[in-house]
Design goal:
The structure holds 2 protein chains of 2 kinds. Chain A is mainly α. In chain A, 78% of the residues lie in helices and 1% in strands. In chain B, helix 5 links the parallel strand 8 and strand 9. Classes of the chains: A mainly alpha, B alpha/beta.
């Protein structure tokens, strides 16, 4: 097997082990053989420990799979942003999704906790559409303008959200907890809907993988090589924005995964998107799952996952950056 | 010796004597000036207070309530728009609060010689007021005996010692009456829910934990770290609380929130319909350490042991 396939295969094995490990640990200690026997007896219809069954099937499993999916969504979305904007600081929230979702959530908490998710999704998409409309110059989407437009829209939506939080009687606790982000409320419905959304939108992105490598050379170059840059940008950015907004409306704003996963991917597998895209997805899924498992297993109570993601991801990236430098000198 | 010299000596002596007398007067005067005492507040800060206390601004309902309860309510010149008890507290001039934080200018405009605050006020505001020579007492008891201590403190500095002693004795006997009724009953596991998703609850060293414990409950979150920890839902399943107390701020309006959920519906409290959702007043009792805390204790004890308190 080629080394790059080997790397992808190892990442996949790592993810499977990570999933098994994450299902077997948590704040409630369930011995590993009890985990396997509970699952086995549950499917065989034999008597099992009911509390263990509930914890494994209704609390841990949905949460573990949601972490995998959200990690994958953020990573793919981050990679697309970095590629299309040719900007190493690209992250999934560049087009205003985070601020849009925050505004939607704030309005939601003014009305009822039950409309928070749909409104967060709707306003995240609204922010994305405004950014897209502003960035359309001569029938083309300019990356430079889109970055600035995204920043402007982000600040505008954040200001509106802050205004609501500060001056209206918004349920402050609700908004703050929501903004922190986390996978605590995961259930099978979330996993189901996010899987459906990913199954619809990921193929639209994967279809353009060959074009991504050419896009890295700049719009003019890519065009001269026959890439319909406008179509690639519109379809891939829009699909990734929709699925990211969807994920954000479920779990809040989880930072860093989308930024760091593609960079880690580049360091271990190179720039070619044929390998980089699946690698980024697997890295994002592994990273968020590991972080969330640490966050929820803390015996003194849960820690917001964003704190752990940075603690896990930042040293990993720093290590890869330094190792590359020593490696280059050695040659 | 010439008479003139004698006269000069007498004059000089008189001048010195009068200076001395005047200086003595001056000295007497400073003794009669505002008396300074140093007290320690709930943050462990040493606060210098000038007696007598004449004008007090309260920046938190719990502080307002303690002042009225010991009979020192007439010293209050302003409180906040969150104040709701007693009725007089509602009609006092208001210090406008933006998200719980008061404007220094506005506080100063009431010319207080004491400001009462809780940790909700930012330290900058407290520092700013103190630099203007206005002492700020931060009173935020994290258990019931802390309320007694703060009431005694307020009683001492406002000259309402007897009022404070009477109020504390009343509270003690009120709570003692409740605890004696439930003394021999089995203690019940209680989950207090400040927010549902994630489940924020009250940890060990909190006022709410003390209320639950006093009313006969065992707070299932007492072993978590931090005052307001997140409790994981699998831990809740394992702890299997027999009673769930839900804060009004959660937005949860009835038990159906718990009933149709595969995790919650397996918890004892939900199965036995022992989920209690506070109304606004009940949430206030629970969250404002002061004279009304006795009602919070009674309320929780009633939820836990309805068989004992069926007369009300």
């Amino acid at each position: 097997m080629k080394p790059k396939f080997l790397i992808l295969f190892s990442l996949l094995i790592l993810l499977i082990l990570n999933i098994l490990f994450s299902i077997s640990i948590g704040p409630v200690r369930i011995p590993f053989d009890s985990v396997t026997s509970t699952i086995f007896y549950y499917f065989m219809g034999d008597p099992y420990n009911r509390i263990y069954m509930l914890i494994i099937f209704y609390i841990r499993m949905p949460r573990v799979f949601l972490a995998v999916l959200v990690g994958a969504v953020l990573a793919i979305s981050g990679l697309i942003t970095q590629t299309i904007f040719r900007n190493p600081l690209g992250d999934p929230y560049l087009t205003g999704i985070a601020s849009g979702a925050a505004l939607g959530a704030s309005i939601g908490f003014l009305i009822s906790p039950f409309v928070v998710e749909p409104l967060a999704f709707a306003f995240a998409m609204l922010a994305v559409f405004i950014t897209f409309i502003i960035s359309r110059v001569d029938g083309e989407f300019s990356p430079e303008i889109m970055i600035l437009a995204g920043i402007a829209v982000s600040f505008l939506f954040s200001a509106l959200a802050s205004y609501l939080i500060y001056l209206k009687e918004v349920n402050l606790r609700g908004v703050l907890f929501w903004l922190l982000g986390g996978l605590y409320g995961a259930n099978w419905n979330d996993v189901f809907y996010l899987t459906i959304a990913s199954l619809i939108l990921f193929p639209l992105i994967l279809y353009f993988v060959p074009e991504f490598d050419l896009m890295l050379m700049g719009d003019e170059q890519a065009k001269s090589m026959g890439v319909d840059t406008k179509r690639v940008k519109l379809i891939t950015l829009l699909s990734s924005s929709i699925v990211t907004s969807f994920a954000v409306s479920m779990v809040g704003i989880i930072g860093f995964i989308g930024l760091v996963s593609p960079h880690i991917g580049r360091k271990i597998i190179g720039e070619s998107h044929r390998f980089l895209l699946p690698a980024s997805i697997l890295i994002g899924a592994n990273l968020l799952l590991a972080s969330d498992t640490i966050a929820r297993s803390n015996p003194g109570g849960e820690i917001p996952v964003g704190i752990i993601t940075s603690f896990v991801g930042a040293p990993l990236l720093i290590y890869l950056l330094i190792r590359r430098r020593f490696f280059d000198r050695g040659n | 010796m010439k008479w003139s010299n004698v006269l000069a000596i007498i004059i000089v002596a008189l001048v010195f004597l009068s200076i001395g007398y005047y200086a003595g007067q001056l000295n007497n005067h400073t003794i009669q000036a505002p008396q300074k005492i140093v007290v320690t507040d709930d943050l462990g800060r040493n606060v210098t207070i000038y007696l007598p206390i004449k004008r007090v601004v309260s920046m938190d309902p719990s502080n307002t309530q303690m002042m009225y309860a010991i009979g020192a309510g007439n010293l209050l010149v302003a409180d906040t728009s969150y104040d709701w008890w007693p009725a007089q507290a509602k009609s006092l001039p208001k210090v406008e609060m933006d998200n719980g934080t008061a404007s220094v200018e506005e506080v100063v405009s009431y010319n207080p010689n004491l400001v009462l605050a809780t940790t909700i006020q930012s330290t900058q505001i407290i520092d700013q007021l103190e630099s203007l020579g206005i002492p700020v007492l931060v009173l935020e008891p994290n258990n019931i005996s802390g309320i007694y201590r703060d009431m005694y403190l307020l009683g001492n500095i406002t000259g309402h010692k007897t009022g404070a002693i009477n109020e504390v004795n009343y509270m003690k006997s009120y709570i003692g009456n409740i605890t004696s009724k439930i003394a021999n009953l089995p203690r019940l596991r209680v989950l207090y829910m400040l927010w549902p998703d994630p489940i924020y609850t009250a940890g060990n060293n909190t006022f709410i934990n003390n209320i639950i414990t006093t009313a006969g409950g065992i707070n299932v979150a007492a072993n978590l770290t931090g005052p307001w920890p997140i409790i994981n839902n699998e831990t809740v399943l394992q702890d299997n609380p027999q009673v769930i107390l839900v804060d009004n701020d959660t937005g949860i309006s009835n038990i159906s929130y718990f009933k149709n959920n595969p995790v919650w519906e397996n918890i004892s409290a939900v199965q036995n319909n022992r989920v209690y959702i506070f109304n606004q007043t009940e949430s206030n009792w629970m969250n404002e350490p002061g004279p009304l805390t006795i009602y919070a204790v009674r309320m929780v004890a009633q939820f836990l042991y309805p068989q004992v308190f069926n007369e009300t």
